[in-house]
Each structure stands twice: as C-alpha cells, then as structure tokens.
Specification:
CATH superfamily of one domain: Tetratricopeptide repeat domain
Mean pLDDT: 84
Largest sheet: 3 strands, mixed
Number of helices: 18
Shape: globular
Radius of gyration: 27 Å
CATH class of one domain: Mainly Alpha
C-alpha cells in the first residue's frame, strides 16, 4: 500500500464550488491516467449528473460532510474562531459562495431542507448510506407521512430499518409497500430475503418470488437474487430458470458472471437434470476464476450425479485443499468413495461432514443424492 497523509488545505475548488480549510488525504498514488480520485463521501453529499456527451460532471450540494475522514482534528491556528461558521454560511453557500468544510458538518440539518416527500426520501437514503440510520429514519418517516400512498418510500424505510436491525418493523414496511403496489418487485424480493434470513417457512418466500419474477423484465439484475432465494427455498429447478435469465442478458465479461455460472451449475446438479449444461457452466466458471473452491465443489457434484466417481473425488480433493472442512465437499467425496467400494475412507468423509453439518444427509436425500 502506498503511503498517504492527511493535511488541511486552505482551499479546495472544483468548478464553482470552493471549500475552505478542507482536510484531504494525499500521497504518491498512481491513478492510471486520472488527475483526481473523488471519494464516496463527495458523491453522497452531492447530486451528480454525468453528461457523457459533453465530457462534463454537474453537481449541486445535497447536505452532509463533503470530505469525511472520520477523525477529529484541530484548526491550524488552534483558535476556536477558525472552527465557527458565520451566521450566513448556509445562505452564502447556496448562492455559490465558499463554505468551510467544518461548516458543512455543522449546518447539514438546515442546508437544502426538503420541501416534499421525495426530497425527504432522498436525504434519508443519503443518511442511510453514511450509516446515520436515526437521521435516515426521521426523513423517511416524514416522506411516508407526506405521501402515504407511495409504496417506494415504505420500501426504502423498510430497507433502512432492516439495516438498523429492526426486522419486525422492516417487515411491516415491506407489507405496506406490497399492499400499495402488488407488482413492486423490489419490495417482494426484500420481503422474501428478510423471511429467508429469519428461517421462515419456504412457502412464504415462493409467493413473493413468483410475483417478482412475473413483474420483472428478463434482463433485470434481480433475477440472480431471486434464483438464490428459490434455491434457499428448496426449489433448484426454479433457481436454474432465474439464473438463465440473468446469464442470457448479461455480457460474458460481467464480473459477476463466474459466480452466477457456478450457481446455475450447482442448482442444475441438485436437480440431476441437464447435467451437460451444468458441467459446461462449472468449466466456464473455472476458466474465468481458477482455483475457486466452490466451483470445484459444484463440479464435483455434477460428476457424482454422472457416476463419474474418479473425477468427482479429484474435484472434491482440490476443493478441500483450497477450503478444508467444507461439509458438502466431504459428503460428496464420501459418497463417491462408497460407490467405488472404499467403505472405510468414504464413511470417514461422511462422518466428518455430519460433524460439521448434522442435517446434510437429510438435505442431500431431498435431492436424491444418496
């Protein structure tokens, strides 16, 4: 890692916006042809519009710290006056005048005060991104009260409540969002995800997943998440359909592609059907990301289902070398060894798998893996 330092600069200016006495991190860092790296804190505190055709970036201040290094600091002179905001600072900044970085932090509650539900929701989600859940929930509750028939605001508040470990309240918000908009796929998937995390009955997930799938276009990113939730609910065949929608509508070089190909390989192996495609998926995933334990584990299950026990054992050996004590790899290798007549070694692997995951044999039997 390159060495960096934090220092206070008298002035920082981009376009017409100037911030006085800003603390910035700097160092001898290669940016691969770029002149400046703008951090997430800047984007969270501004509304950003990228005009690609003009090669320009437009932004206006949205509230919150512009450069938040999350560390206390003293003023260069040690004078308390250097940290105090002038009475007219907020109005001056709104008119385009310079504003001190510390003033930004102090005046966020008064700056750019929302006047409608959408404004409160935007500010609430910006606060949530900064993990200021108390402020986020205040604003999102205001949005819900101002627009009680807008499902989006209840969904957003539900997500923040879930992040803030208020699962019951989050579920109530998702319920209300779906009541207001039964075709809202985001709220449907969120409610199914929350129920999955609480180990609710699988049937409670499937209703939402089916509805979300019907409401979404084929190319929607959510199909990948829906696939994982179908798999969690014990529906691998439905998961394969969702993964296929995602894979067919995303470029081959998408960084998520290896993971999703592996997910379809695994789900296909669980069904025991279309094993040729499942094997191709695992092979392609391994080409993109070699030496990934989960991918060898999935391909091992495909080989096991194809009764190719030598190749199954070889893949499980690699998977366990990369990630020891993986229950499914141990269990699959144990079954392959038993099929080859290696009773002692096979039973030892199965016992080790059961010690790690006592219900793995029951889960395997549900999919006909015995």
């Amino acid at each position: 890692m390159p060495t960096t330092w934090i220092a206070r600069f008298a002035s920082f200016k981009i376009g017409d916006e100037e911030i006085l006495h800003a603390e910035l991190r700097f160092g001898d860092v290669s940016l691969a042809g770029a002149d400046l790296l703008i951090g997430a804190d800047f984007f969270l505190s501004h509304r950003i519009y990228v005009a690609s055709s003009q090669h320009k970036l437009y932004f206006t201040y949205n509230g919150g710290p512009v450069f938040d290094l999350t560390r206390p600091h003293a003023s260069p002179s040690g004078s308390p006056d250097d940290r105090a905001a002038p009475a007219s600072a907020t109005a001056a900044h709104a008119a385009g005048a310079p504003m001190a970085a510390d003033t930004v932090k102090a005046d966020v509650s008064r700056l750019d005060q929302p006047t409608d539900a959408a404004g409160f929701a935007r500010r609430g989600m910006a606060s949530a991104a900064r993990h200021d859940y108390e402020a986020a929930l205040r604003d999102l509750t205001q949005a819900c009260e101002l627009a009680p028939t807008e499902a989006t605001f209840f969904y957003q508040r539900g997500m923040v409540r879930w992040q803030n470990r208020q699962a019951d309240l989050a579920l109530a918000d998702f319920d209300q969002a779906i009541k207001l908009n039964p075709d809202g796929a985001d709220a449907r998937v969120a409610r199914a995800s929350l129920r999955a995390s609480r180990h609710d009955p699988p049937e409670s997930l499937i209703v939402d997943l089916d509805a979300a799938d019907r409401a979404l276009p084929k190319e929607a990113d959510l199909h990948e998440q829906i696939g994982r939730l179908y798999e969690h609910a014990g529906q691998p065949a439905a998961a394969v359909v969702q993964y296929s929608k995602w894979i067919d509508s995303h470029p081959h070089d998408d960084p998520r592609m290896p993971r999703t190909l592996n997910a379809r390989c695994w789900a296909g192996a669980l069904t025991g059907q279309a094993l040729g495609r499942a094997l191709a998926d695992c092979n392609n995933a391994l080409k993109m990301r070699p030496n990934t334990a989960a991918f060898f584990d999935s391909r091992g299950l495909v080989y096991l289902r194809q009764s190719n026990y030598d190749k199954a054992i070889a893949d499980y050996d690699v998977a366990l070398h990369l990630r020891p004590e993986t229950a499914w790899s141990l269990y699959g290798r144990g079954l392959a060894k038993l099929h080859k007549g290696m009773k002692t070694e096979g039973q030892a692997d199965i016992d080790a798998a059961l010690a790690l995951e006592p219900k793995i044999a029951e889960e395997a039997r549900k999919h006909g893996i015995t």
